[in-house]
Design goal:
The chain is built from three helices and eleven strands. By secondary structure, it is α+β, with helices and mostly antiparallel strands. The chain folds into two domains: 40 residues; 152 residues, Beta Barrel (L,D-transpeptidase catalytic domain-like). It has a nine-stranded mixed beta sheet. A two-stranded antiparallel sheet has the order 1-2. About 22% of the residues have low confidence.
């Protein structure tokens, strides 16, 4: 009987050791990957209202259509445009509006950065250690800022589903259930993202 208990205890220790080792390896790989990506981008300084760069995002365009024509599309002609004043996300393909969605961007005290970006990370589900929430269909477009579905905790309660259309997030761009999956499937790595007022 004692031998079975000892074998069981050793098996549990081995499984625990392997789980911890695998977790550290995945964390280390992820940190190296994102550190390399962060180092490859030029430095962008964030203040409370916007991302400051030396680039002009829009010139003196006279209409919304003129502004869209001046944006940088990816090689496939795709662009994600987030309009903070409208709390909407637009999908464009070669200057043609494909679809729009209601979003929740960052609250005034935790604003969503503005500027031109590219999607450089995709994950169907991320766990946020900071907020202890799952972030489904996450598209990383700048630093730790994501476009994702409304988050939920271990209790499976959605946070902010009833607040779509209002700037209430911690800085990410939240989409509704189903909408985020559609945007996630449509967007590619490298797809342009523009966030503006």
């Amino acid at each position: 009987m004692q031998i079975i208990k000892n074998i069981y205890f050793i098996a549990v220790l081995i499984i625990l050791f392997l789980s911890i080792t695998a977790g550290f390896f995945l964390f280390w790989q992820n940190e190296l990957f994102f550190a390399d990506l962060k180092n490859s981008f030029k430095q962008i300084k964030i203040n409370k209202k916007s991302v400051q760069t030396n680039e002009i995002i829009f010139t003196n365009a006279t209409s919304s259509e003129d502004q869209i024509n001046q944006l940088t599309f990816d090689n496939n002609g795709k662009l994600v445009l987030v309009d903070l004043s409208e709390q909407k996300l637009y999908l464009y393909n070669n200057n043609d509006l494909i679809k729009d969605f209601i979003v929740s961007s960052g609250a005034p005290e935790t604003p969503t950065p503005q500027g031109e970006f590219k999607i450089y990370g995709k994950s169907p589900l991320i766990w946020s250690v900071l907020y202890e929430q799952y972030l489904p269909y996450a598209l990383r477009f700048y630093d730790d800022y994501l476009i994702h579905e409304v988050p939920y905790g271990v209790d499976a309660v959605r946070d902010g589903l009833d607040k779509l259309g209002q700037p209430v997030s911690h800085g990410c761009v939240r989409l509704g259930i189903g909408d985020a999956e559609e945007v996630y499937e449509w967007a590619d790595m490298g797809t342009g993202v523009v966030v503006r007022e």
